[in-house]
Amino acid sequence: MMTxxxxxxxxxxxxxxxxxxxxxxxxxxQFRSKTxxxxxxxxxxLDEIKDPSGLFYILPYQKGYLVNWDVQRNVWDHxxxxxMFKVDFADTxxxxxxxxxxxxxxxxxxxxxxxxxxxxxxxxxINAGSLSAHKYFQENSSELCCIVxxxxxxxxxxVPYCRGKKMKDGICRINVGGKLLxxxxxxxxxxxxxxxxxxxxxxxxxKEDVCYVSQDFYKDMEIAKLKGEENTVMLxxxxxxxxxxxxxxxxxxxxxxxxxxxxxxxQILRLTNERYAVPETLFHPSDxxxxxxxxxxxxxxxxQNLPGEMQPHFFKNIVLTGGNSLLPGxxxxxxxxVRSLTPTDFEVSVVLPANPICYSWExxxxxxxxPDFDEMVITRDDYEENGHYICEEKFDI
Length: 397
Prior knowledge:
With 397 residues, this protein is of the alpha+beta class. It folds into 3 domains: 3-29 and 62-129 and 357-394, ATPase, nucleotide binding domain (Nucleotidyltransferase, domain 5), CATH 3.30.420.40; 141-176 and 289-351, 2-Layer Sandwich (Nucleotidyltransferase, domain 5), CATH 3.30.420.40; 178-279, Actin, Chain A, domain 4 (Alpha-Beta Complex). Helices cover 33% and strands 19% of the residues. The longest helix has 15 residues, at 178-192. The two termini are 29 Å apart. Pfam families: Actin (PF00022). It is found in: Cytoplasm, Cytoskeleton; Nucleus. Belongs to the actin family. ARP6 subfamily. This is Actin-related protein 6.
């Protein structure tokens, strides 16, 4: 029985699962910790690390492109191996994602690894956004156009699709992603209160727990200047010590000591305007010296590069995916800003799926059930006969 494995191979997490099963979200990297320097942990072995302080990541991706094949192979060996998915390569097709504008050298390496090393029966290389668009069109069959905003670890991509095909003239990339936000937060905290430059893992968790997208930046700035309990932005975050406190958490407001000092041995971060100033980078990259458009402007710019009669259809089908879209307030802010930049006679609608991190994986699952799926893939026999050329011809990347 032929099965299909869907792998949305992101720069931060791999979303993987058989098309007949559910998805698992697993770190797409290896780790070493300060305490156990000699041991390398792979993917979901992260849970085995007793003391994740000073944890450093060894990532297969750099700046959004897969460059470290040794690390990627180790992660894939782990995922495809007997502890995880027990892949029977000869009877399995794989749908695997790759970045937009990927380098042909990377594509060739991927073909070789999938067909020659692992010997999958068949493969389909595709952009994650194309899978998200496929899912959106399946669920909204009356719509012909959508624009996928994929704000991930390395980049934010804005890609318009019409009748399932991506419109290359409208593709826009902003060099701001989750990694940059975490690094920015590390710098602010290190400058203001505590040296955390080595604590990527912990501060990434802080970001996910406390950051939000402001709906009115100047109003929040005024609140953040207030003293004591009137400052509703201020938050105290208890850092993990990895013995009694395994995971950091926000102190409940009623337990906060506004005079600043706590008697207990807890290590506290006091966060104010960085809670919204860090995610603001997605909307104004120039705040930290990156001379690029923010997401709402880039959406409008992307649509304006497309034929006039199609533009209204894109504005009413804006789909948010990727981990940054989970920041509280993200959807509302994108809507508000795009609305203010768009002619009033256009309808604007911004959709945040229930699970924006796995949305493209779900699109891959749907695609694998498509009656034309066998026409889309390259089989190992095709590849052995024709080499990379056949992949280049067939995969519209």
